[in-house]
Amino acid sequence: MKQFKEKYIIGVDHGYGNIKTANHCFKIGITAYDTEPLFTKDMLIYNGKYYLIGEGHKEFLRDKVQDNDYYCLTLVAIAMELSDANIYEANVIIAAGLPLAWTSGQKEAFAKYLSQNEDVTFTFRDVDYNIHISDVKIFPQGYSAILPYTPRMKGLSVMADIGNGTMNMMFLENGRPKAESKMYTEKFGVYQCTLAVRAAFSKLTQREIDDFIIDTVLREGTADISKSDLQIITATAQEYVEGIFRRLREHGYDAQTMRLYICGGGGCLVKHFYTGSLERVSFIDDICAAAKGYEALAEIKLKADESRAK
């Protein structure tokens, strides 16, 4: 969270698996109830309904404004950041992002969606919040995460933001993004690997495997399971990672002449399961990097707007 005059800039990275802010990360699962549920640890009360956060799994939605879930999750993200500073009434500027190739087409609708209520009152974790949404800034996803690295980039580089739902690719020259025609978004996120593991495991063992085990192996490279089960997951993950690099090459990536910067949760899969050389590959491991970048870009834009107005 950044303070700009009397307003607070709060970056929110609306992933398909997790919501990230500059200091927090939580799963996007959300379940609504008309009456107060039994367990209320991470409960949002908004507009007469009760929402348990982190419960269930939200399906992939190409357009995030199709329902009100991401709006409610944004309120939770704002509450988490404000709570760290013991602030419960605030004038907030939301800084968010969209997949690279979808930004121009969805930017206006997403900004309108996030600012649907200028003033909003809600309760999260038994604390009341009164928030004024004064503005919403939308930026290209992925680029914000590598923003601190761009001044040091020389020659040709490629950014690959591998999230849970999508894979975003951007080509850069000396740290500056090339034309919009060199930005790509594909539905090839980590969840596609999870689905492939489930299918392969069922086919080869006639058993089901818990997603917790899959997530552990994809994140850490191993788990406390049998060698044969681990081999199935490993082989499937290696195929998925090969698919990442195949898509990069199809869009013009050349490992000999370009440096690759990988951000997003999929970076751990490349680390653990890529069989090629990683000599010219850098990883942005901070899962909150994009949200921090959104805040930095919003601050830059606000200062520039203020300067032009003088």
TrEMBL record:
This protein's source sits in the domain of life called Bacteria
Signal sequence residues: none
InterPro entries of this UniProt entry? ALP_N, ATPase_NBD
Pfam families reported in the protein's UniProt record: ALP_N (PF17989)
Q: Where is the Actin-like protein N-terminal domain?
A: 11-143
This one is known as ParM/StbA family protein
Species in which this protein is naturally found: Ruminococcus bovis
